[in-house]
């Protein structure tokens, strides 16, 4: 498994995936930094620094949420399907390696990339935002819990995409998983909107359903809550409507996310282990 | 012990049967040729033997082990028909990767030696993306040889090679046989199969139509194709000869120097030569056509046609 993992990482380096992803992330963070510099300090009203810091951090984290999901889809989308089409796997699988070792080796190798990418993006945004507006996050503990949710979001997407890669063609897989992430966001946004504006259960129900199908959005809202739930500004998690976390998912969602991740990996292993190549 | 023994190996894809109760055996240390038209079930059979496809029924033993066992897979090399190694790796890294999967580290010298053996001397540091199709096929052969396998499955190993490459690979396969390795060759190039294989099996529509030695295959046919290099052929000679030997054709040439091709039993050759000489035609050479396996192949499949 470690051999496959090592070669998966080597592949990302040789294909310049790391260089491209790292370069673009730095560019994104640079633009975020320049934007905060150019937009200047907020009016000298008490609490306005908090509010500005929160607003821009929300904005940045929403972009990070989308980018991590897309990154995970793109680096995993061809993992198995493309290698079957190319015949690469046909030469490898007759070797004395079990299929689950190959699949999990590939997943782990690329998961290191997801971990680095999400860490760079998440901590980069927080550091830049706090450098400009002072402490926004209540504690380092909250910060790492929030990062854990962000990372889990990326890993959940990676596991679903890996499963899709064992089931279907590369393009179909990419479209299906990207759409699922988008639908999860829309469901989550409706749930937040419902919490702010309506007591109709439809808002909540649709949010639950989409979160169960694809828990990425719930994990994102949970991360926002971890980050800002204890904020000095009481309306921090509710102040951004459908983009905020007025009704944050509980801890159970994190456990569900973990179970979902393991479940998807097991399904991928099971299906790949039984399929004819 | 047989290198491969299949007992009623069967594979269905939904309702379509790809392999229908295949009973085969391959002796250790021989070159075995698996023949058959496109879609006959050859690749499915190979894939079942190396664990890429799960059989629907039947069983098989490869190097004494049931299908898919890691113990037998350690002793197997495989060159797929359609494959592409990661273009971002060097040839040496491809070999290293496969060695690592086998659980050992291939040193640079051994890697160079393997590449030299398949005609890629000095190419270890070159990226696969710079390789031509033929070079990739040679690299595939080198990969199949990583770990000194006892049994090597080769699926169309010379399809992308030029005549020199095909000859070199044929020589390599003969060397490998001398070393005591068993080779399972799946190829459409019947002239190559005829030159190097000890035994063959013919599969059509998922069923084994013939299984035996190459000599048995060719002798079972009774007739062979012969080429006759002749001179002094005159207009009307061919039509006259065709009256007695309907399949006789002029393959190429001019009256002074032509090649005739005819299919007939071995016993019929002297009377043909006599008839030619009696008509004043000079016979320089009579040779059994090297593609007689092709004739056998077509006859066996019921697709005989006058060549």
Write structural notes for this entry.
The complex is a heterodimer of chains A (277) and B (307). Chain A is an all-alpha fold. Chain A has one domain. Chain A contains eleven helices and no strands. In chain A, helix 3 packs antiparallel against helix 10 and helix 8 crosses helix 10. The longest helix of chain A has 35 residues. The relative contact order of chain A is 0.14. Chain B is an alpha/beta fold. Chain B folds into two domains: 218 residues, Rossmann fold (3-Layer(aba) Sandwich), CATH 3.40.50.300; 79 residues, ACT-like. Chain A, domain 2 (Alpha-Beta Plaits), CATH 3.30.70. Chain B is 34% helix and 31% strand. In chain B, the strands form three sheets. Chain B has a six-stranded mixed β-sheet with strand order 6-7-8-3-9-10, with helices on both faces. A four-stranded antiparallel β-sheet of chain B has the order 2-1-4-5, covered by helices on one side. In chain B, helix 3 packs across helix 4. Chain B is globular and about 70 Å long. The relative contact order of chain B is 0.13.
Fraction of residues in helix of chain B = 25-40%
- Low-confidence parts of chain B lasting 5 or more residues at pLDDT below 50? none
Q: Could you list the spans of chain A in which at least 5 consecutive residues all have pLDDT below 50?
A: none
Ends apart, CA distance between termini of chain B: 42 Å
Q: Taking strands numbered 1, 2, ... along the chain, how are they ordered across the largest sheet of chain B?
A: 6-7-8-3-9-10
**Can you tell me the CATH topology of the largest domain in chain B?**
Rossmann fold
CATH class membership of the largest domain in chain B: Alpha Beta
Instruction: Give me the CATH architecture of the largest domain in chain B, please.
Output: 3-Layer(aba) Sandwich
- Listing every helix as H and every strand as E from the N terminus to the C terminus, the arrangement of chain B reads EEEHEEHEHHHEHEHEEHEHEEHEH
Order of helices and strands of chain A: HHHHHHHHHHH
Please count the beta strands of chain B (DSSP E, at least 2 residues each).
14
- The N- to C-terminal Cα distance of chain A equals 20 Å
Mean pLDDT of chain A: 87
Overall geometric form of chain B: globular
Strand residue content of chain B: 25-35%
**Rg of chain A, Cα atoms, Å:** 20 Å
Number of helices of chain A: 11
Total of domains of chain A = 1
Number of helices of chain B: 11
């Amino acid at each position: 498994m470690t051999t496959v993992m090592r070669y998966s990482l080597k592949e990302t380096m040789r294909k310049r995936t790391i260089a491209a992803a790292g370069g673009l992330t730095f560019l994104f963070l640079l633009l975020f930094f320049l934007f905060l510099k150019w937009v200047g300090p907020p009016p000298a009203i008490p609490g306005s620094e908090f509010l500005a810091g929160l607003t821009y951090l929300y904005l940045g984290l929403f972009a990070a949420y989308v980018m991590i999901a897309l990154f995970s889809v793109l680096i995993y989308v061809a993992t198995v399907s493309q290698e079957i089409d190319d015949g690469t796997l046909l030469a490898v699988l007759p070797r004395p390696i079990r299929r689950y070792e190959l699949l999990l080796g590939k997943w782990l190798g690329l998961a290191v990339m997801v971990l680095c990418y999400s860490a760079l993006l998440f901590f980069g945004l927080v550091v830049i935002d706090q450098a400009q507006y002072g402490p926004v996050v209540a504690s380092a503990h909250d910060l790492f819990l929030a990062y854990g949710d962000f990372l889990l979001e990326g890993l959940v997407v990676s596991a679903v995409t890996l499963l899709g890669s064992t089931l279907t063609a590369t393009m179909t897989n990419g479209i299906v998983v990207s759409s699922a992430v988008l639908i999860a966001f829309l469901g989550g946004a409706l749930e937040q909107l419902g919490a702010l504006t309506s007591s109709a259960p439809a808002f909540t129900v649709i949010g639950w359903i989409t979160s169960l199908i694809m828990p990425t959005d719930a994990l994102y809202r949970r991360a926002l809550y971890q980050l800002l739930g204890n904020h000095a500004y009481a309306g921090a998690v509710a102040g951004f409507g459908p983009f905020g976390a007025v009704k944050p998912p509980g801890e159970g969602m994190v456990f569900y996310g973990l179970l979902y991740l393991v479940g998807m990996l097991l399904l991928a292993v099971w299906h790949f282990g039984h399929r004819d190549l | 012990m047989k290198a491969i023994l299949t007992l009623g190996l069967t594979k269905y894809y939904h309702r379509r049967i790809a392999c229908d109760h295949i009973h085969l055996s391959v002796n250790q240390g021989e070159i075995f040729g698996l023949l058959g038209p496109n879609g006959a079930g050859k690749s499915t059979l190979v894939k079942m033997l190396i664990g890429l496809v799960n059989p629907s029924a039947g069983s098989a033993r490869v190097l004494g082990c049931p299908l898919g066992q890691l113990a037998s897979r350690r002793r197997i090399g495989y060159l797929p028909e359609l494959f592409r190694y990661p273009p971002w790796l060097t040839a040496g890294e491809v070999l290293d990767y496969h060695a690592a999967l086998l659980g050992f580290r291939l040193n640079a010298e051994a890697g160079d030696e393997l590449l030299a053996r398949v005609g890629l001397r000095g190419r270890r540091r070159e990226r696969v993306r710079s390789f031509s199709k033929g070079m990739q096929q040679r690299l595939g052969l080198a990969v199949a040889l990583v770990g000194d396998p006892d049994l090597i499955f080769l699926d169309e190993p010379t399809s992308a090679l030029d005549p020199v490459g095909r000859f070199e690979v044929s020589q390599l396969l003969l060397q490998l046989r001398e070393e005591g390795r068993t080779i399972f060759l799946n190829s459409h190039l019947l002239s190559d199969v005829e030159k190097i294989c000890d035994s063959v099996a013919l599969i059509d529509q998922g069923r084994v139509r013939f299984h035996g030695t190459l000599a048995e295959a060719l002798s079972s046919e009774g007739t062979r194709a012969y080429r006759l290099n002749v001179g002094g052929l005159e207009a009307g000679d061919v039509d006259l000869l065709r009256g007695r030997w309907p399949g006789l054709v002029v393959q190429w040439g001019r009256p002074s120097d032509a090649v005739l091709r005819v299919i007939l039993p071995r016993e019929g050759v002297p009377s043909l030569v006599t008839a030619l000489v009696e008509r004043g035609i000079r016979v320089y050479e009579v040779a059994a056509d090297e593609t007689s396996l092709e004739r056998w192949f077509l006859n066996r499949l019921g697709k005989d046609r006058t060549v």
